[in-house]
Amino acid sequence: MQAYSSRNSLSFFFGRCTLLGLSTVFVFIGLCGLSHSESNWREFRGPTGQGLSNASELPVSWNSSQNITWMKSIPGKGWSSPVIENGRIFMTTAVSQEGDGTSDIGDQSLRVICLDSTTGDLKWNVEVFHQDGKTAPRIQGKNSHASPTPIVHYDKLYVHFGHQGTACLTFDGKIIWQTRQIQYSPRHGNGGSPVIFDDLLIFSCDGAEDPFVVALELKTGTPRWRTGRNIEAERPFSFSTPLLIQVKGKPMLISPGSELVGAYNPKTGEEIWRVRYPTGYSVVPRPVYGHGLVFACSGYGTPVLYAIRPDGKGDVTDTHVAWQTNKNVPHNPSLLLIEDALYMVSDDGIGSCLEAKTGEVRWKQRLGGNFSASPLFAGGHVYFQNETSTTFVVKASSMFEQVAVNTFEQISDERTFASYAVSDGAIYARTEKHLLRIENR
Questions:
Q1: How many CB atoms lie within 10 A of CB 84?
Q2: pLDDT tens digits for range 279-328
Q3: Which end of the chain is less enclosed by CB atoms within 10 A, N or C?
Q4: Are strands 271-276 and 314-315 parallel, antiparallel or unpaired?
Q5: Could you give the strand order of the β-sheet that contains 426-430, starting from the edge strand earlier in sequence?
Q6: Cα–Cα distance, 165 to 15 (Å, whole number)
Q7: Does residue 242 have a pLDDT over 60?
Q8: Cα–Cα distances in angstroms (integers) from residue 90 to residues 7, 17, 51, 86, 169, in the given order
Q9: What distance in Å separates the CA atoms of residue 367 and residue 405, rounded to the nearest whole number?
Q10: Alpha carbon separation from 35 to 7, 38, 39, 249 (Å, rounded)
Q11: What's the distance, CA 50 to chain centroid?
Q12: Cβ-contact 21, 38 below 8 angstroms
């Protein structure tokens, strides 16, 4: 069993692995004979959607004078993570008509930018939508008007601005289609990123009322299916990115929302099963999957981590939860599953490692600062980045061992909520106003 990538049913990156039936994506990355480092990073949290990189040569230490190849200013403001394809970096951003262009108020130009991954030079900068500041709902202080991460599919780029619209572009910045047909009332702005299954672009629309999951046709942006959450949640708004997995040879879309995590048939939108977590809302972390278990968090107020067997039907709350915990569970950062270990960091900076099959705590450690970005695994190390761009690098081990603590001194006043991207032996880090390339030099 394995997760699906942004390519058609894993056909591009993991096509040779689809029949292995392994319990974690991490294991079959090693067995499939992939190259020593990704060249492309096509969606939120990378090729598997779960923060796993097969790069073995990433740096573990850096500062303003060491291992930073370039640092480039980024127009506007956005918390979308970079995606990379064949030497091109794509990101979304929102440029305000107020002040220096980074204000959350006023009219917003919702844009896509493309940079050269080697030099950091801007290749193009295109407006996709214009947001009217007089009518647009206000966003939460930790959000942006460009938070969902783009996704690459073959020679097309798909960008999503939540309730403000979705679009398809060429790699040269030409808009192929754009749609604002999917309407809903947001709460605190946009957040969750889209995923791709076959010829469908799928995302969650968990707004102020009537939350649902929807699929658009890749070629046209026309809606194919729409499935309501069908739950009376007190606070129905959430911001999670779905995860595509395979269970008993069949695809399954795992999509957390307020007060439930649901499993859906990605072809039709039919709900397969659900697990309820009453009062959970504003769910952000993307699920991870392995060892026959889906790991999902319940969001605010008290976050709970659930390990769920995904082979049920209907409401499986009382029958398919293998274990659960509310100790140091994140509100915002996603989890990491590496072999039989589950890593996470709470928003207030408590890192921990759990035994994935049982939930037993192997270690916990205060790292420092507040966290929103999702962690990264590469080369035997876990990278935890906090909201002031400080990164704690620890060994992926059953015992806590810190390897390095890294900062960007010259931009330490900038907030950082975007997650890392990896390509050709380099880490790409987005801060509030900059994008950096970090590599061994």
A1: 24
A2: 999 999 999 999 999 999 999 999 999 999 999 999 999 999 999 999 99
A3: C
A4: parallel
A5: 68-73, 434-438, 426-430, 421-423
A6: 32
A7: yes
A8: 17, 28, 18, 11, 11
A9: 9
A10: 17, 7, 9, 26
A11: 8
A12: no
Cα 202 to Cα 62: distance, rounded to the nearest angstrom? 37
The pLDDT of residue 1 is: 35
Quote the tokens at residue 427: 């880490």
3-state secondary structure 160-185: ECHHHCEEEEECCCCEEEEECCCCCC
Q: Which residue type, as a one-letter code, is found at position 63?
A: N
Distance of alpha carbon 374 from alpha carbon 359, whole angstroms: 20
pLDDT digits (tens, 9 = 90+) for 201-218: 999 999 999 999 999 999
Q: In angstroms, rounded to a whole number, what is the distance separating the alpha carbons of residues 199 and 218?
A: 5
Express each pLDDT in 44-101 by its tens digit.
999 999 999 999 999 999 998 899 999 999 999 999 999 999 999 999 999 988 878 8
Look up the pTM and report it.
0.92
Amino acid type, 380: G
Dihedral angle over CA of 159, 161, 166, 170, nearest 10 = -20
* Residue that the structure tokens 């390990």 belong to: 307
Question: What token pair was written down for 256?
Answer: 């957390």
